[in-house]
Write a structure and sequence with these properties.
2 domains; Rossmann fold; elongated; about 375 residues; 7-stranded parallel beta sheet; 12 strands; alpha/beta; Leucine-rich repeat, LRR (right-handed beta-alpha superhelix)
Length: about 375
């Protein structure tokens, strides 16, 4: 059996280079460039920006570098640069920067940057998708913790200013852990239950982690993966609650104007056909839910509750929601806390006039004159106090 690769996805700032290290400004950067090119017999050092070269030489924390070296030696892992440093330094240049510490052989690649509107976790997902021979990996980064935890909770090490021994211990455990399909198999089992219309399966969550695992295994596109997951939900008659979390993070990079509409459209068609789901929790970073609202209008059985926390509804999304609210003639609850900054006047009027609808909101989200109170049927959440 062919041995799989172990990869360290490496950020630089806040991992190897502490933010308060500014020693590069005390050295003669031009002289340093000449010395590096001569010492390593490589004119390419002169093509590296002198600030990056000086930072690598003067500001990379020596203990952090040695901790990383020890991890690589113990695990036989290789480095793929995921840091913003790759914006100005391709793989050959990054190898030269690591050559300063005699670690150039460990650097094998950088993650792609041409993925527009994609966060760093999505760039790593893209790399893994195109390198299925990677069986174990760890991610070092001091930022984007919410994104990494949502997609790769078992592979992320959050650093604080620089690598510490505890970070290496955690990474060592991750890289030495045997590859496991437990989470993927559990998700596939749930999909099978839905496909077989199992009456015991009444709740189902589609999260970014499980979606990513399935897509990586099937080696198919994003929309196709989503279609496979949603297809059997449409005809299921036992599901009561559907939860979709963070999927919007994976639909920003490949589609032009409003990529989240892929989720919006496919979910609308699914719910329009389904007759059993009465609770929808949609925490997916969507801006526009026009198709979903249209699908809910045409649904034979109404939803009882919708939670839109974790989305960022703009004008079109709020307009579509207002139009949907106007059609409701049954008891309906909706959570809008964390779904938008402030509701539009059109949406406020729709919510105010329809007593069947109980919206959950914060005071700061409601456009009221000073001293005015929200309607009594509004479920108002107490504002947080920072004092």
């Amino acid at each position: 059996m062919k041995k799989g690769k172990k990869i360290v996805f490496l950020d630089i700032d806040g991992v190897l280079q502490p933010y308060n290290y500014q020693y590069r400004f005390d050295c003669d950067m031009d002289v340093l460039q000449e010395c590096m090119a001569r010492e390593h017999n490589s004119p390419l050092y002169k093509n590296i920006h002198k600030y990056d070269l000086a930072a690598a030489y003067c500001d990379w924390e020596e203990d952090a570098v040695e901790y990383l070296r020890a991890l690589l030696e113990k695990t036989d892992a290789r480095i793929v640069i995921s840091s913003d440093w790759r914006s100005f330094n391709d793989t050959p240049k990054m190898k030269l920067l690591f050559k300063i510490y005699d670690m150039d052989d460990y650097v094998i690649d950088i993650t792609a940057e041409e993925l527009k509107y994609c966060y760093r976790d999505g760039e790593i997902a893209h790399y893994l998708f195109h390198h299925p021979d990677v069986t174990q990996f760890v991610i070092f980064d001091d930022h984007y913790s919410d994104d990494f935890v949502a997609r790769y909770p078992d592979n992320f090490v959050h650093t604080y200013d620089k690598l510490e021994p505890k970070d290496i211990d955690k990474a060592l455990e991750i890289l030495n852990r045997p590859p496991s399909d437990e989470k993927l198999n559990n998700f596939k089992m749930q999909l099978e239950q839905i496909r077989n219309n199992d009456p015991n399966r009444t709740q189902f969550e589609i999260c970014l982690e499980h979606y990513s695992l399935l897509r990586h295994r099937l080696q198919i596109g994003r929309a196709e993966t989503l279609e496979i997951i949603l297809s059997d939900i449409a005809d299921n008659t036992h599901l009561k609650e559907l939860c979709i979390t963070h999927l919007g993070k994976d639909f920003r990079e490949s589609f032009s104007k409003n990529p989240e509409n892929i989720i919006d459209k496919k979910l609308a068609k699914t719910l329009e056909r389904n007759t059993s789901i009465n609770r929808l929790i949609l925490n997916s970073g969507l801006n526009d839910i026009s198709n979903l609202m249209e699908g809910l209008k045409n649904r034979k059985t109404p939803l009882e509750f919708v939670d839109l926390k974790g989305n960022y509804l703009y004008d079109e999304g709020m307009k579509a929601l207002a139009e949907f609210i106007d059609t409701i003639d049954y008891a309906f609850k909706i959570n809008l806390v964390g779904a938008l900054h402030q509701i539009s006047y059109e949406l406020y009027i729709a919510l105010k006039n329809n007593l069947n609808v109980t919206p959950r909101l914060r005071n700061s989200q409601v456009p009221l004159m000073p001293g005015a109170k929200p309607p009594e049927h509004f479920d108002m959440v107490k504002e947080r106090s920072f004092f």
